[in-house]
Amino acid sequence: MQIPDFHPSIVHFPIALLTLGSLAALAYLYWQPTATLRTLTWIPLFLGWVGALLAIFSGLLAQSELPPNAPYRAILNLHTYGGFGVAILYAIPLYRRWLHGKHPRIPPRKRPGKNAEKPRQRDLLDEPAARWWLSGLFVLGLVLILLTGAYGGQLVYDWGVNVQTGP
Question: Contact 20/44 with Cβ under 8 angstroms?
Answer without folding.
Answer: yes
